[in-house]
């Protein structure tokens, strides 16, 4: 023992000296360590908010008017900003997102493109990166004033505006100021924005979806101070929770849907509409039509010249959006979620029917129920789905969604699936990031990826007939096997991901990763409890990636650093090669096992022999010798070698060699097919790779004889090359046909 101890000490000293001379080695199973931010009293090592966690608050009182003839929005807002931070603030930052459409915006100036002959004229802008429209967007800021009416100095930097304060805003203080502004809404068919309008030439009417329509406070937090990164179009929003009181003035024949609850329904609705709305609040089995298609179609023809003001209030939300049109059909039904009964509502023009009347509100209901069961009970009083073409965008309590039937009212299964998916997805965003309020400008995957995962789960459980591969390990394979030279890891700032890869990177790959985590690594019970813990910890707060990673481990006792490192910080992919298979059976020796004169039938080993590579010639004989006295060491008891041989007698011993070709360490899911036709699935944790990340061998003992071995038989690991997952190599299952030509 002393000699062994001395050797260990010497070996340790050698390693210490090497460590001092060489960069630290980072293996795939090493802890993330300093890669994640250091825990503190604001954000703990467990992933929970700390005892000193704080966040800011901003309350808004807004009045806005929409001119249906010019598409101009004119508004004033009063913002009360609460400084809950430990810092004194000399200035405030606001987001001016509409300035992305202003002349010489950073987005337009940095947009790249090429000239191609014979491209469709409407594609010229997107192809070349040069706008040829005569539309002039961006805010006109009329004034910025304090509560007494005194002008406040302000500086506009593209999509950001700094407001200088007359005195430092100290901890615990609040400051009220006002902004007056206007801008012209854009044609969503021409400009790929989050809101805009859709024009319907057949009846000369508009559907408006108004988003990022008012100057909004930036986030100031413990993580990075002001989040005032420019809005470039792809990275979305970081926003502050607060209370809203909003008055929206529109033509009197418009129907308005918005974040929050309507405060003056008697002023803007007919008696019949009020009665229908009250009935919908008590109806749980199907939607109630509040405005019918016939009523909406009639309004398209008359066009009121009067104005009405709709007032909405919303508490503890991070944003406010609204939609308005005289074309809207309106239906609604109540949904039971825990002790809450939110009202699911859909607004859509006749061009959306019959599809929207049948499916939109039903999809809202399914999303609210499934997401609530996996996170927190939906806390808000309403949830809207609003229809206009080619959109999919989310805001608190309201979202804008595309997919419509053709002019005959007919639609395919693909269109039906598209509608259900987009409604579920955008309604689901109420949870991520509207409630679990991550920073989308930095980490798109924290809302899009988590939301795509729960969208997939909703479709899988509520619409199994529509379930496909979107967001699944199988579905992400084409992306994962792509060109790594231009690929970015998931942990990449949103605007730095190529547009063509943004969908897979921010949506599908994180969803596929979480599916692997739930179904294969952790198991549904551990995963669901940990995921729900994360949602409950960070509801109405501002989580960062480390908070998610740490909470998932803290609530499950599963070490997942290897998983986050591989799936989120690298471009590695899963590709495990079942490189070699050997088959052994113990020699049937009743005589002295040390004698080798007994012969066994020549076997075809599961190795290359006589040009074959299969099981057809039987097992290789295996001899177990008696344990020598030298190997027994100081133990006084005797091992029973014969008993060991007896336990192995007649068993089939298989030695499998695995190579990690793709670089991403993974659990192993092995399907064994036996000679009698039966099958068995065996699961090996990813930790099998911890001492050798490249090549491993493992021995299995089976009662029955094996005829076929398949890795990842049900496509749950996102393995990108299925041809090397099978033994014998010639027996690639028909379900792998799609991979054979790859």
Shape: elongated
Assembly type of the chains comes to: single chain
What's the name of the CATH homologous superfamily of the largest domain? tricorn interacting facor f3 domain
Strand content: 25-35%
The number of distinct helices, counting runs of at least 4 residues, comes to 17
Low-confidence stretches: 1-20, 595-611
Q: What is the count of structural domains?
A: 3
Q: In the CATH scheme, what's the topology name of the largest domain? A: Immunoglobulin-like
The radius of gyration over CA amounts to 32 Å
Question: Which architecture of the largest domain per CATH?
Answer: Sandwich
Q: Class of the largest domain, according to the CATH hierarchy?
A: Mainly Beta
State the total count of DSSP E strands. Answer: 31
The main pleated sheet reads as: 7 strands, mixed
- What's the average pLDDT? 91
Helix and strand composition category: alpha+beta
Protein name: M1 family metallopeptidase
Pfam families: Peptidase_M1
InterPro entries: Peptidase_M1_dom, Peptidase_M4/M1_CTD_sf
Organism: Chryseolinea lacunae
Describe this structure in words.
Residues 410-567 form the Peptidase M1 membrane alanine aminopeptidase domain. It comes from Chryseolinea lacunae. The chain is of the alpha+beta class. It has three domains: 57-115 and 123-437, tricorn interacting facor f3 domain (Immunoglobulin-like); 469-571, no CATH class; 576-740, no CATH class. Helix content is 26%, strand content 26%. The chain contains 17 helices and 31 strands. Strands 4-7-2-1-13-17-15 form a seven-stranded mixed beta sheet. A six-stranded mixed beta sheet has the order 16-19-20-21-23-22, with helices on both faces. A hairpin with a 4-residue loop joins strand 1 (57-67) and strand 2 (72-82). Helix 7 (355-374) packs across helix 9 (445-462) and helix 8 crosses helix 9. It is elongated, with a radius of gyration of 32 Å.
